[in-house]
Design brief:
This protein has about 260 residues and is mainly α. Among the domains are: about 60 residues, Serine Threonine Protein Phosphatase 5, Tetratricopeptide repeat (Alpha Horseshoe); about 55 residues, no CATH class. The protein is about 45% helix and about 10% strand. It is built from 9 helices and 7 strands. Strands 1-6-5 form a 3-stranded antiparallel sheet, with no helix packed on it. It has a two-stranded parallel ribbon with strand order 2-3. Helix 2 packs antiparallel against helix 3, helix 6 packs antiparallel against helix 7 and helix 7 packs antiparallel against helix 8. The protein is globular. It starts with 8 loop residues before the first strand and ends with a helix.
Length: about 260
Amino acid sequence: MVSQAPRVAVALVALVALGCSAAPRTPTPIPRATKSPHALILYAILDRDVRLAHVGHTTSPTAARTVIGAGRPIGDVQPLPSVFSDRHQAELVEAERHYASQDYAAALAVLEPAFRDEPRNPFVLEAYGRALYRLRERGQAFAVYRTLVDLLDTEWSSDSANAVTIDLWFVDAYWKVGTLHIDRAEWERAAFEISRALAGGFMWERLAVDQALSYLAKAYAGLDRRDIARYYAERALEQNPRNTFVKRYLDPLWRDNK
């Protein structure tokens, strides 16, 4: 469940305005990471209108902009509803209690009837998928999270095919489904979902950012975009100089012989 979602100012930390990750050309330029970056380039959502759902008291006349400087406040996350399900609120509360005590199997058992009864309730889907993910039931978790994210995309769809929406109540869902796409070697989709999660910025701790950047390096390596893979590997090392996972993406032998 997402009852722990912060009701704090939201700030995008991403620069998303240079090009599209699916473009056949090499993006120009691919900047080298620096020790004091002002913004993170998210190539998977470049040249797209980024719209944030569930932002209140915005500081901009538009819901979101394509380029926002690091740490620049854009508004507050709207408060979550007090009731997530008219029929299964008690089960959601009990499941959250089990989840907090790391009894994920008990949380899943409590949520089963709610999931069967309300398979389109985003709060039920999020809670159920989170328990499955913790139990390493990754195939089932993928199906649940994919349903949730597709549901959110449908809810916030617009007339613009170029627009991408990030629902700030469910940032963690973009992250988890992105990691599950990594498992399936679905590199482009993985990069897109992880980029959406990172663009939600406020939920991330330092080591979580390191992991997300590492996965982006892996995804772009899988897409044979070595320039972008290198960029994210460098950014991961900024977060965590001990990160050995990404160092192969900086190895000249890997770049020359891949």
